[in-house]
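Many introductory courses stop at the sequence. We go one step further.
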Amino acid sequence: MSGYVVKVGKKGELYMPKKLRLLMGLEPGGEFVAEVKDEELILRKRKTIVNLLEEEAIAKVSEKEIKKERELLEKELLER
């Protein structure tokens, strides 16, 4: 695994090398999600709604199925 050196500024800012930002597709103001595992810091680019819409669907639902579920939910809410 190759690594990059990321520096921490006086106010806690993370300074990444340009090559790393380009590789990850991070623009100024972009966001990422940080996860801590033991002594590791894992950074993942935060997906935007546009990113999610561009991904391949993981399931296909017909209009008929959606209408059926909506009817069931409406019925359940009215019974409360």
